[in-house]
Amino acid sequence: HTVEGSYEPGITSQEVSTAAFKFALELRVFDSQWTLIPVIDSQVITEDWTVQRVGADVVPADNVEPTWAPVPLGSDTILVSQELDGMPSRRVLATNVPGLYRISFTAYVFVHSARNLRSLSLALLHPIAAARLRVKQSGK
Q1: Whole-model pTM above 0.85?
Q2: Among 63, 67, 108, 109, which residue has the least CB neighbours within 10 Å?
Q3: Could you write out the DSSP letters of every residue in the chain?
Q4: Contacts 24+ apart (CB under 8 A), 30-36
Q5: Rounded distance, CA 103 to CA 50, Å?
Q6: What are the backbone angles phi and psi of residue 49, rounded to the nearest 5°?
């Protein structure tokens, strides 16, 4: 899983602004039975969702980059919000088609400012293999 984000501070008197993170998660579904894959907490603001797939019969064996095909969300692959008892809901991918999947989306996270210190919190359901954050400084 990889994430790439950027933050550009707005007006210096603002205490809260947002950072944008572009996520790419790759995972494999082995069986043709319905499978639910948790992606991110539903309380995170997201947009630009795309789902791509490589069929189970054409997944490359070595470190060859697969040929991704867009997945139309519908009867066999859907993005839904899953409610859990006593816990916050989460966005999940539900599918009954085996193969290699790539899920991409953009998440927006609030950045709190206190003088020159900026902090952000990003609660994830999966570990990240690579991350990059770009902080743009406003020119004065």
Answers
A1: no
A2: 63
A3: -EEEEEE----TT-SEEEEEEEEEEEEEE-SSS-EEEEEEETTSEEEEEEEEEEEGGG--SSSPPP--EE---SSSEEEEEEEETTEEEEEEEEE---EEEEEEEEEEEEEEEETTEEEE----SS--SEEEEEEPPPP-
A4: 30/56, 30/98, 31/98, 32/96, 32/97, 32/98, 33/96, 34/94, 34/95, 34/96, 35/94, 35/95, 35/96, 36/82, 36/92, 36/93, 36/94
A5: 6
A6: -75, 130
